[in-house]
Amino acid sequence: MFKHIVQVDDIYYHLKKAQEYRISQVLALEAKLKNSEEAKGKHFQAMSVAYKHNQENLQVIAKLRKENQELQASHKNEVNEIQASHKSKVKQLCLLHKEELKSMEKKSRDSAIL
Asked: Which spans of this chain does the record mark as coiled coil (predicted)?
């Protein structure tokens, strides 16, 4: 009878230890789950901030592209104006040079006749 009582006490002790171990495992899993949920929350917050920064960067890029296009158009207009001005000046110089050549030829003919 005494041996039977000891065995029951041993079984009760082992069951109690197993129960405590399972409880500690459940508590550890709950803590792990809580940490996981906190990590998910932090990850979601980080992703939200990253998305917001990405949107801001896209807006800045769009603004810079627009400014770049405007500057390119302005530069193209300036280049066209300068080219047109140079063309006009070159034509004027060519006409002036032709007139000078004609004048010099006429003087040369006149002096050859004399």
From this structure: 54-81
pLDDT at res. 108: 82
| Residue (of 58, 81, 46) closest to 89 by Cα position | 81
**Residue 91: C-alpha distances to residues 69, 71, 81, 111 (Å):** 33, 30, 15, 30
Taking 70 as the pLDDT cut, the residues of the chain under it are 1-6, 114
113 token code pair: 């006749």
Spans of all domains in the chain: 1-114
Give whole-number Cα distances, 39 to 28, 31, 42, in Å: 16, 12, 5
Query: 25: exposed, middle or buried (C-beta count within 10 Å: 0-12, 13-18, 19+)?
Result: exposed
Take residue 67 and report the two structure tokens written for it: 């400014």
Q: Per the structure block, which two tokens stand in for 104?
A: 């010099």
SS (H, E, C) 5-20: HHHHHHHHHHHHHHHH
